[in-house]
Design brief:
CATH architecture: Orthogonal Bundle
Shape: globular
Number of helices: 11
CATH class: Mainly Alpha
Number of domains: 1
Structural class: mainly alpha
CATH topology: Endonuclease III, domain 1
Distance between the termini: 30 Å
Largest sheet: 2 strands, parallel
Strand content: under 5%
Number of strands: 2
Strand order of the largest sheet: 1-2
CATH superfamily: Hypothetical protein, domain 2
Helix content: 40-55%
Order of helices and strands: HHHHHHHHEHHEH
Amino acid sequence: MSNNNLPLIRCSWVKDDDLALQTYHDTEWGRPCFNDQTLFEYLSLELMQAGLSWTTVLHKRQAFRDAFHHFDYHQVATMQEDVPRLLTNPALIRNRRKLNAIIQNAQAILSLEASGTTFAAFVWRFVQDKPLRHQVDLTHPAPKTIPQAKALSQALKAAGFTFVGPVISYSFMQAGGLVNDHAKTCFVSQSPIIAK
């Protein structure tokens, strides 16, 4: 049997029977992202995950994209009056605090832009614009948070963001590739984008 017929080895949190989770892991998670709109989507989905499984959030991702203008934060910032309607949408996670947080965070990104910085530039400075790489394996699992995520959390709150505690901030950093927590045995770790 050739190596091409062997199953791909992924991080342990990826379920073998969940294609959406596999695709997210293989093509997005841990890959450096510098796009403001995509980073805003990652932050929004991560705060939605609080208290829930990532699988639940991921399977509602398209519904969130539809409801929040594909996370165009310029449009999302004007959606405060839409919250009652969003709360009636069964395709979403109907948590008023979290929905309000997405809108408030969009407004905070606009405030950053008005001050002369982008959301990407703001968050990437906490890792000196270069992804942190952890040596994740069974004996060294990824931490729940790190000092850089705690510092990012404090800075985000000071800039007007909400629902951005240290754990959510760290999950966001993992999603956006500010931190690479792919396991050493994971095939993505060998990707030129990830390995460099």
